[in-house]
């Protein structure tokens, strides 16, 4: 990516809307770039002048929460220090950012990738196939106004096609489905054609489903970026945790992510679940507008389950995800109240110390 010629940043998604955001920054005269890899203490930034390795200003490092720090896909403004080093001084406002609940917490979230157009939910057609997990990813992706895509990989394996087709039938209204295998190159053609120039696609899913192999196959090479970072500085590669961006020739950019064992929801709008899981039409026919679809009289959702029109497993998944979403939402509100109270106490302490 680094050469004597200017990098065409439109291939990485740069457009007029982003330029307007840049012009609104007090640092608008500085170069812009996109985060391609996040390391432990530094960031790889692709810019018009090539690849830079950047750190954060103290104000950014200590003035933002972990979820607000740059993630792969973010657009930043930076001050070059020499040929390939720099300091990030500002971030453009995020759009279409995929989050998940941070492991071990109830109200903290983690940014996976920003400025995402499509999210490929990758599952393999072996023991990893789990339609409930696909629902979970899909709901969070829709929450961020990102287009979900279900990629059922390792289609060269023996699997029950009828059972898989039946299991995902209710998801086809929300997202396209592709059956792929890197050992059957013809199965990748339609998937590759679905990625337009300048689009950003993030690959999500569990470990071992073949996300990185798919990225390499779509790019026709071992395309995942590697950066030579001094191990002596503590800024070495952490391939088990990092997310990195690669450029597809003639198309968009792909963001590979490490496999996740847990993908906790961070929904601000739990009502999205009804629409995502094809329950909203039934819910609209309930006798009571605030029906919780659990044991209320005149509940059309429960009636649909009893009549065989709604899959009981989809209904159970809906209830489980809704409980989780409500728990996150309530916990987030409590966390905000606590932070506001703490901030007020700190200010009061400052005022007392002045007197």
TrEMBL record:
Give residues annotated as binding Zn(2+). Answer: 286, 291, 293, 299
List the InterPro entries hit by this protein, alphabetically: G_CP_dom, NA-bd_OB-fold, P-loop_NTPase, Ribosome_biogen_GTPase_RsgA, RsgA_GTPase_dom
Q: Which GO terms describe its molecular function?
A: GTP binding; GTPase activity; metal ion binding; rRNA binding
What does this protein need as cofactor? Zn(2+)
One family name in Pfam for this protein:
RsgA_GTPase
Q: Which NCBIfam families match?
A: ribosome small subunit-dependent GTPase A (TIGR00157)
Q: Provide the protein name.
A: Small ribosomal subunit biogenesis GTPase RsgA
Q: Which organism is it from?
A: Chitinophaga jiangningensis
Tell me the organism's taxonomic lineage: Bacteria, Pseudomonadati, Bacteroidota, Chitinophagia, Chitinophagales
- Source gene? rsgA
